[in-house]
Design a protein that fits this description.
With 528 residues, this protein is α/β, with parallel strands linked by helices. It folds into three domains: 105 residues, no CATH class; 177 residues, Rossmann fold (3-Layer(aba) Sandwich), CATH 3.40.50.450; 143 residues, Rossmann fold (3-Layer(aba) Sandwich), CATH 3.40.50.460. The protein contains 15 helices and 20 strands. A seven-stranded mixed beta sheet has the order 12-11-10-13-14-19-20, sandwiched between helices. The chain has a four-stranded parallel beta sheet with strand order 16-17-15-18, with helices on both faces. It has a three-stranded antiparallel beta sheet with strand order 2-1-3, with no helix packed on it. The N terminus is likely disordered.
Length: 528
C-alpha cells in the first residue's frame, strides 16, 4: 500500500502525483527534486507551505487494476458538466459554418471520420499530463510500477461541435468582466460577440462593472453587436468595466433569471471562477437551462493547469520597458539603484520572466522564494557588493514578495483578498537607510508601473490567445457545457471543469529549470 499525493503549491502546471511516505519525503520532493540550491533554512520554511495543500488518495499498487481505477477517478473529476445531464435536450445540427478541410491527423493518428469538417468530437482529447510514479528519493528516476509504465491524463479538446444544444434564435447571451483590468479583455469580448453572431445569436448583453451589474439598479445592460465591438481591441481596459466582489449568488441568479440570460460568459481570475462555479451550481439547483462558461483572466498567470493566461505576455513586454528605464536611471546616477515593483500577489511569473527577458536585473525577488534584507547573506549586503563592483544595480520585486517582512494587516479588498503591504516602498526605504548607515552614498530610483501595464492594449501574442479563447468559450456553451473554463494546456485549447482550476493558485516552482535560469541570469545568491 502506498499513498499518492497531489502537490499543488510548488508550481507545476497541473497536479502531479508522486509516491511519498512522510512529511520529510514531501519536503524532499517539493524542494530538492532537482538537486539545486539546497538550504536547510529554505527547506524548513517552504516545507510547511507544501504540506498545507497536499491531497491524499489511497492506491493499492498490488491491485492489478490500480491504473484503471486511477484513470476512472481522474475521468470522474474531469468530467465536464453538461446540460443534457439534467434536461432532456435534443441536440440539433450546428449552424456554425466550417470550411471542409479533409481528413485530419489527431494526436498523431489519422482520423478521417472524427473531424472531417473541422468539428471536434466529444472523444477528441488533449494530453494534460503524463505521470510517472516514482519513489520519494529518486525524483522520478525509478518507477514503482514493475512494468515501468506511464499513466496518461486526457482532457476535452475545445472547439465547435457537430451538434448544438441551444437554438441560436432563442439565446440571450450575457458577458461580464470581473476583477482588475488586464490587457486583452476587449479582445475576448469582441471575439465572443463575433462568434455568437456567426452562430446566429442576435440578443447579446454586456453586464457593466462585474457582478455588480447584476444587482445595482443604477446599472443597465449594454446591447452588444459586431458593429459596436468592431474596434474595441484597439484600446486597453474593458468596454464593460470591472469591479471586485458582488451580491449573493442567489441574487445574481435571480437577476439572470429575470433577464432571460441562458448563456453567461464570465471573464476573471480565481475568485471570479469561484463565483462562476457557485452561479453554475445554483442554476443547476433551480434546474435553469443556463450555460456558464469562463475565460481565465489573470495578468499574474497563476491559474492551475493553464500554459498561459491572456495579458501575461503583454505584462512581461511592458515590464521589460520599465526595467530598461530603471537600468538607464541607475547606470546614469552615481551609485544608482533601480528598483521596479511588478504584479504578482502569490506567483512571481511576471517578475521572473521580465527579469529573464530584460537581462538587466541583478536581483529578482518573488513570493515563492523567501529572502532576508538584513544580515551577512541579505539583499542589502549583496547590493553593497554590486555597488562596489559594478557601480550600479537593478532590483525587480513582485508585489507579494517578502510580506513576512512587513507589518501584517487584517484589511481585505472587495474580493476578500488580504491587502498587502507595499514591499517596493519598504525595500526602497531600507536601501536608503542601510547605505546611509554604512556611509556609502546611494541614489535609489523606484518605479511602480502596475496601473500603466494593466491598462495596455494586448500585444500580438495575447491578441491571438484572446481571439481563440473567446471563440472556444462560445463553442463550449453551444455544445451544452456549463461550469467550465477554456484555456490552453500543453499547447492545445481545452475545456476544464471550474473546480479543477481553482483548487489553488499556480506558483513558480523554486526548483524549476526556469527559476534557475533566472538565477543564472541575475547571478544572485540565496538571500538567507
Amino acid at each position: 500500500m502506498a499513498f499518492v499525493y497531489s502537490i499543488k503549491s510548488v508550481g507545476f502546471n497541473s497536479p502531479r502525483p508522486h509516491t511519498l511516505h512522510s512529511n520529510e519525503d514531501i519536503s524532499l520532493f517539493g524542494l530538492n527534486c532537482l538537486g539545486f540550491r539546497k538550504s536547510a533554512r529554505y527547506m524548513k520554511k517552504r516545507c510547511s507551505n507544501v504540506r498545507a495543500v497536499v491531497e491524499k488518495t489511497e492506491i493499492d499498487f498490488q491491485d492489478p487494476n490500480w491504473k484503471k481505477h486511477f484513470q476512472e477517478d481522474f475521468e470522474d473529476r474531469f468530467n465536464l458538466p453538461h446540460l443534457r445531464d439534467i434536461f432532456d435536450i435534443k441536440p440539433t445540427p450546428t449552424t456554425f459554418s466550417l470550411k471542409k478541410r479533409g481528413p485530419q491527423v489527431v494526436d498523431g493518428i489519422s482520423d478521417p471520420e472524427e473531424r472531417p469538417n473541422g468539428y471536434v468530437n466529444d472523444k477528441d482529447r488533449a494530453l494534460l499530463k503524463v505521470i510517472k510514479f516514482s519513489s520519494p528519493n529518486s525524483a522520478g528516476a525509478e518507477c514503482i510500477d514493475p512494468n515501468c509504465s506511464w499513466v496518461e491524463q486526457w482532457v476535452h479538446r475545445a472547439g465547435p461541435r457537430k451538434q448544438i444544444y441551444f437554438k441560436p434564435e432563442e439565446v440571450k447571451a450575457g458577458i461580464v468582466t470581473c476583477g482588475g483590468l488586464c490587457p486583452g479583455l476587449n479582445d475576448v469580448i469582441r471575439q465572443i460577440v463575433f462568434t455568437l453572431e456567426i452562430y446566429g445569436v442576435k440578443n447579446i448583453a454586456g453586464i457593466p462593472f462585474g457582478y455588480r451589474g447584476f444587482f445595482d439598479k443604477g446599472l443597465h445592460e449594454i446591447p452588444l453587436s459586431r458593429h459596436m465591438v468592431q474596434n474595441i481591441n484597439l484600446a486597453g481596459g474593458s468596454l464593460l468595466g470591472v469591479s471586485r466582489g458582488g451580491a449573493s449568488t442567489s441574487d445574481i441568479v435571480d437577476s439572470i433569471q429575470v433577464r432571460g440570460i441562458n448563456m453567461l460568459f464570465i471573464l476573471g481570475g480565481n475568485g471570479t471562477h469561484a463565483g462562476a462555479d457557485a452561479i453554475h451550481n445554483e442554476c443547476r439547483k433551480r434546474r435553469m437551462k443556463v450555460s456558464v462558461v469562463c475565460v481565465p483572466k489573470t495578468i499574474d498567470n497563476d491559474i492551475l493547469l493553464m500554459d498561459k493566461t491572456f495579458g501575461f505576455d503583454t505584462a512581461v513586454e511592458e515590464a521589460q520597458r520599465v526595467i530598461n528605464s530603471a537600468y538607464i536611471e541607475a547606470r546614469s546616477a552615481y551609485h544608482g539603484i533601480g528598483l521596479v515593483k511588478l504584479m504578482g500577489r502569490s506567483s512571481g511569473f511576471i517578475a521572473m520572466h521580465a527579469s529573464l527577458s530584460s537581462g538587466q536585473i541583478d536581483v529578482c525577488l518573488i513570493p515563492e522564494v523567501p529572502f532576508s534584507l538584513e544580515g551577512p547573506y541579505g539583499v542589502l549586503r549583496h547590493l553593497e557588493h554590486l555597488i562596489r563592483t559594478k557601480g550600479s544595480a537593478v532590483v525587480c520585486v513582485a508585489e507579494g514578495a517578502g510580506q513576512d517582512l512587513l507589518q501584517k494587516s487584517n484589511a481585505t479588498d472587495a474580493s476578500g483578498n488580504v491587502v498587502f503591504g507595499d514591499i517596493g516602498v519598504h525595500i526602497q526605504q531600507q536601501i536608503k537607510k542601510h547605505f546611509k548607515e554604512t556611509g556609502v552614498p546611494a541614489d535609489v530610483k523606484y518605479i511602480d508601473p502596475t496601473y500603466m501595464i494593466r491598462a495596455c492594449r494586448a500585444n500580438a501574442s495575447d491578441a491571438i490567445l484572446c481571439t481563440v479563447l473567446g471563440q472556444n468559450a462560445v463553442h463550449g456553451a453551444f455544445a451544452g457545457y456549463s461550469g467550465i473554463t477554456v484555456g490552453i494546456c500543453n499547447t492545445h485549447y481545452v475545456f476544464l471543469p471550474i473546480p479543477e482550476v481553482i483548487a489553488s493558485p499556480r506558483f513558480v516552482n523554486p526548483n524549476s529549470r526556469m527559476w534557475h535560469r533566472c538565477l543564472t541570469s541575475t547571478g544572485q545568491p540565496d538571500f538567507l
